[in-house]
Amino acid sequence: MTPRHCCAANIWATPGRVFIYNPDAVSFSIKLETLHPALGRLLALMVDRGATDLLVDADRPASVRIFGALVRVDDVCPSADDMRRMIENLLSPDQQQDFTRNQDFDLSFEVERLARFRCSLYRQRGTLCLAVRALPLVIPSLDSLGLPPVVSDLAMLPRGLVLVTGPSGSGKSTTLAAMIARLNETSQKHVITIEDPLEFLHVDKRSRVDQRAVGTDTPSFGRALRSIVRQNPDVILVGEMRDLDTMQTVLSLAETGQLTLATLHTNSAAKTINRIIDAFPGERQPEVRSQLALSLEAVISQTLLPRINGGLVAAAEVLIATGAVKTMIREGRLHQIYATMQASQNIGMRTMNQTLADLVMRNAVSVEEACARSSDVKELRLLIHR
After folding, report:
1. In the chain, where does the domain assigned CATH 3.40.50.300 lie?
2. Among 29, 53, 252, 364, which has the minimal tally of Cβ within 10 Å of its Cβ?
């Protein structure tokens, strides 16, 4: 299964797979007709119906997630052999060995003229499974995402740490991609991203954007981050702070003069700060509080809700690390941060409840959906009916 390459046609292939180089997207595209028929049909269905996610495993109907709800696709029920051929069709021999060894594997790929997809391969009850996330070929603008205007300002900061947080599927990667796209269009910077896998692909505009995939371009987040300052970056994006080593390195990088963007799986801005501090041993926590107080610029915590008239809408809370907030972090008075956010809308801060109440009052989302995302339903109802 050695790849064949035809320079003139910009095509390379393995048995059963044909990839066409797309110079505009700086990526390789899989032709739809070369995918396993069931997978090709499901991916096309995702795009046609606006689904965000696809779940497939053997001897069960596939499911797609549309506006947050799982919908069965009863007429697509692949066999174990279908699943094996789907995965062999997607992976190179080395990637297949990695999947066999570790029992899970993440990758991203583009289907020509359809969309980009992020795919996680895993097993359950001994069967092969696919979880696929659809990604648009064109990076959306910050304005189109409906995020607070201050997010655009945060993308242009010269230094410091900006965290984008939320549960899985809340649009964190999309927000970061839109922030990088805004910077790419307006500034002359060197941007380096460390991602697993690469999701949105950036084309150089005014900035130079280097995207490094864990497993392909670097063995790990930690290894890439330890040497990144020698690569002359102005902006560093870390796809996810997954472990203590990565958290420590990100905090250190944010102190060295670059704008550092990263994601974390937390449900609120205040919980994000707690999560980082609590990840460290007790004797190190005062030092970590000082590092955060010095380098943190903002936390954007977001989620996606079904819109009343169809589609999804983003809801975000924003914590700006003002001098008062930095003092609270340094002194361990994190319980006071929420009240500061409530009272600081004039400088771009807002709580999730303030955002949810605004969406309800604009008839963008239902009260029920807003309450399901709120950590304080009583406060939310007071904001809606004030």
Report:
1. 142-350
2. 252
